[in-house]
Amino acid sequence: MTAPETEEFAERFDVSRETLDKLFAYEALLKKWNPAINLVAKSTLEDMWSRHFLDSAQIFAMAPEDARIWADFGAGGGFPGLVIAILSAEKAPERQVILVESDLRKSAFLSTVTRELSLNIRVLAQRIEEIAPLKADVVSARALANLPKLLEFTARHLKPSGIAIFPKGARWQEELAQAKESWSFDYEAIESLSDPNSVVLKIHGAERV
Ligand SMILES: C[S@@+](CC[C@H](N)C(=O)[O-])C[C@H]1O[C@@H](n2cnc3c(N)ncnc32)[C@H](O)[C@@H]1O
């Protein structure tokens, strides 16, 4: 039987049975690897759908459908990047997702899921600072760094027309004010579906001032 949170997820994001099965397979691999390499906090393992999957899928839904290159920085256990790739297989099949993760054990996990689920993902087991410009349409990052640092990471890798999408916690306004000291940009702050105190920041046209 399908759990209510799974049904709610399927309905909210209008995904097929095949996509749900890929998410179940990813969940099983994550639970298998987590005790060895701590991909997500143990306390959140039983909350996979209402927390990590929902949190990631809302980011997917905020990007233009025709975004071809999507880079997720500091992908860790695959949030949001792996969920983006699983949803993209159904809804944006031309898209390639690039997962940048410098921790070798975590990037090995990301490569295993990529292979087992036949996803259109390129895993880069490198530091963001060291990779060649990606010319991405979208860059996302969850729980990686504060906003000024994220803008610095993103600047080299986003196309001029591209957007950056960063989920942020309750202190997002402080980070925004700090970022505005060195950057000019347009943004939207969208209330997070997984936590009413958090937002997802959508940023366009960032330029150093
Ligand atoms: C707190 S974890 C967040 C993981 C995932 N985004 C999530 O929300 O569950 C941050 C991840 O970023 C990776 N990381 C930190 N600095 C990095 C860098 N400069 N280049 C690539 N990866 C980095 C770490 O290895 C870690 O896996």
TrEMBL record:
<dbReference type="InterPro" id="IPR003682">
    <property type="entry name" value="rRNA_ssu_MeTfrase_G"/>
</dbReference>
<keyword id="KW-0489">Methyltransferase</keyword>
<comment type="similarity">
    <text>Belongs to the methyltransferase superfamily. RNA methyltransferase RsmG family.</text>
</comment>
<keyword id="KW-0698">rRNA processing</keyword>
<protein>
    <recommendedName>
        <fullName>Ribosomal RNA small subunit methyltransferase G</fullName>
        <ecNumber>2.1.1.170</ecNumber>
    </recommendedName>
</protein>
<comment type="function">
    <text>Specifically methylates the N7 position of guanine in position 527 of 16S rRNA.</text>
</comment>
<feature type="binding site">
    <location>
        <position position="142"/>
    </location>
    <ligand>
        <name>S-adenosyl-L-methionine</name>
    </ligand>
</feature>
<feature type="binding site">
    <location>
        <position position="79"/>
    </location>
    <ligand>
        <name>S-adenosyl-L-methionine</name>
    </ligand>
</feature>
<feature type="binding site">
    <location>
        <begin position="128"/>
        <end position="129"/>
    </location>
    <ligand>
        <name>S-adenosyl-L-methionine</name>
    </ligand>
</feature>
<keyword id="KW-0949">S-adenosyl-L-methionine</keyword>
<dbReference type="Pfam" id="PF02527">
    <property type="entry name" value="GidB"/>
</dbReference>
<keyword id="KW-0808">Transferase</keyword>
<keyword id="KW-0963">Cytoplasm</keyword>
<dbReference type="InterPro" id="IPR029063">
    <property type="entry name" value="SAM-dependent_MTases_sf"/>
</dbReference>
<feature type="binding site">
    <location>
        <position position="74"/>
    </location>
    <ligand>
        <name>S-adenosyl-L-methionine</name>
    </ligand>
</feature>
